[in-house]
Specification:
alpha+beta, 10-stranded antiparallel β-barrel
């Protein structure tokens, strides 16, 4: 169920919840690794601007499992996301994500269930799509985001396994 929040108090609660989630993410991530330090430079910011099509709140799924992913802007040289899946009205999976530029290029850092981050190097990008890889990871080894209008298709690949999601944009920003 998607509800539209319109009241001032609701906006304040939503802002507080986002700030709380960001603080929790920062604490669970630990100190920023050196490879993310250059991300605040203007050059790092510019490398992420081509990913602005990813910003917003994306939601989709079935009656048994619904998934939501919320991406921030690239302001400050990093993009952050929270992904969560619901079943029976309860969160059954969550993940913290960030995209950052460093000396090795642009990378996606994934933290399923708040575990330590796994780095996926950006290996391809076109207007409306981006591919990240970590061939030494078990699964996934490749993560592909593809924007089609107000839909976002995500594919996680590794070995002979492929997982797919298709979400609709429900809000342009967080």
């Amino acid at each position: 169920m998607i509800r539209e929040n319109t009241g001032v108090m609701c906006r304040l609660r939503c802002s507080f919840s986002l700030a709380t989630a960001a603080a929790a993410f920062a604490i669970m991530s630990g100190p920023a690794p050196a490879l993310c330090a250059p991300a605040s430079s203007p050059a790092a910011d510019a490398r992420l601007h081509g990913l602005s099509w990813l910003e917003g709140v994306w939601r989709g799924g079935s009656s048994k499992l619904e998934t939501e992913e919320r991406w921030t802007s690239s302001e400050g040289g990093m993009m952050f996301a929270v992904n969560r899946s619901f079943s029976g009205g309860r969160v059954v999976h969550f993940e913290f994500l960030r995209i950052a530029a460093d000396a090795q290029g642009v990378a996606l850092f994934a933290q399923p269930r708040g575990k330590p981050p796994t780095r996926f190097q950006k290996v391809a990008q076109t207007p409306g799509s981006v591919t990240f890889e970590n061939l030494s990871h078990d699964f996934p080894q490749r993560i592909v985001y593809l924007r089609r209008g107000d839909a976002l298709e995500v594919r996680a690949e590794g070995g002979d396994k492929v997982s797919r999601w298709r979400w609709t944009r429900v809000s342009p920003g967080m």
